[in-house]
């Protein structure tokens, strides 16, 4: 089943012992030994993750290359069946997977269930159907007169989407189930083979995904997983000559370095990078709804999510009322052990990341922001674990670093703006677009026509109008330094394919 410890009927518990790499259909010992995976809530050891060598990463890429020819020629029905069986197997061991997700990431039970493992199952189901979607698009025929290129003819044409080849999938630590599933499933559906490099903080869940794919019948080499804390592991997964495409979710800084390597080799890229989501709140907005939406930054993944509405731009007339609502919202959120049913805010992923978030709260204070609530470590009872109380920074200015830089934690900054009518719209749009990022912005207003008008002017890949909800069939990706390309729904199938034109004489 996997390189971990197995229980009855092949099911595995949250502790996986010394995990092995998955290369070419074999579970192999890592050249670099293992590193500890730490539970962010308790600081206990969850398991031992393998440290691949550069040579082993290249071996995994070579295995994916060798498997590509056969896998790319399998029927869509066969690929769909394997993805569907993978979803069945993930569902079979759902409870155990939730335990591991919670232990590795510090996510609350509700988040681990509903937003991590359940989403992974749903994505394999979705792309089992996706494997059966048409890949051909007809093109109107063209009448050519006789000339240097041949006799007169009616030329037919069709555009066909073909697999790219070997895809390296580098996944983020905030969701080790949904994020890799959202890369691996559509890539396999299109006939690609994959090399997966998970984040070092929580890689064990990704090996569970690989084990399910193996059991579901994915041929050797179609899926390979390597991990490690060394930069060399990630670099090898990108610069291997056998890799045709890199799909990366993570920081903009690392994405830029990956892009440089891909550029030299003309490799395809799909990049979902950082965000500093602007939430524009006009004076006529439903403030309770706006506060509830913005407040999810405090609770959802403890703010460790790039789509969060972390940068609130609020019209002056309702500035104080919205701040008051956000304070009340934060005050009702229990920070604590994610295993407890009533916990809303769990820990951050690591001690180092907690220190980073705390340093930003202190920086905001020095820059002149008013720390209205939070930012401190919780009191007695939470002596272990990487906890920080949700923080609200008010009276912020657009030039402050806490307003401009991605914090990636439970921290919301609030900036007031002035103006009436069109001038208010102009000011809000200018403030929102004054950012290096452009992933997901939000607009709250009772005037839906105005909200859509403003949305059309925002330089962001997605805009939520009076909602933080997402339609998972809609394209997802960023403008500017928030990324390159789009995925989700059928857009992901396009992202993991090349378009080939086939032309014939009628």
Salient structural properties:
Aldehyde Dehydrogenase, Chain A, domain 2; Aldehyde dehydrogenase; 16 helices; alpha/beta; 7-stranded mixed β-sheet; 6-stranded mixed β-sheet; 506 residues; single chain; oxidoreductase activity, acting on the aldehyde or oxo group of donors, NAD or NADP as acceptor; Ald_DH/histidinol_DH; Aldehyde Dehydrogenase, Chain A, domain 1
Structural write-up:
The structure is a single chain. The chain has 506 residues and is α/β, with parallel strands linked by helices. It folds into 2 domains: 8-273 and 483-505, Aldehyde Dehydrogenase, Chain A, domain 1 (3-Layer(aba) Sandwich), CATH 3.40.605; 278-479, 3-Layer(aba) Sandwich (Aldehyde Dehydrogenase, Chain A, domain 2). It is 38% helix and 21% strand. The chain contains 16 helices and 22 strands. The chain has helices at 54-72, 76-92, 94-105, 109-130, 178-189, 204-216, 231-239, 252-265, 287-294, 296-299, 319-331, 351-367, 401-404, 421-433, 448-455, 489-495; strands spanning 21-23, 26-28, 34-38, 45-50, 136-144, 153-163, 166-170, 193-197, 223-225, 245-249, 268-272, 278-281, 311-315, 370-373, 391-394, 411-417, 437-438, 440-444, 462-465, 479-480, 483-484, 497-505. A 7-stranded mixed β-sheet has the order 14-15-16-13-12-18-19, with helices on both faces. Helix 2 (76-92) runs antiparallel to helix 4, helix 2 packs across helix 6 and helix 9 packs across helix 11 (319-331). The longest helix has 22 residues, at 109-130. Residues 1-13 have low confidence and may be disordered. Keywords: Oxidoreductase. It holds the Pfam family Aldedh.
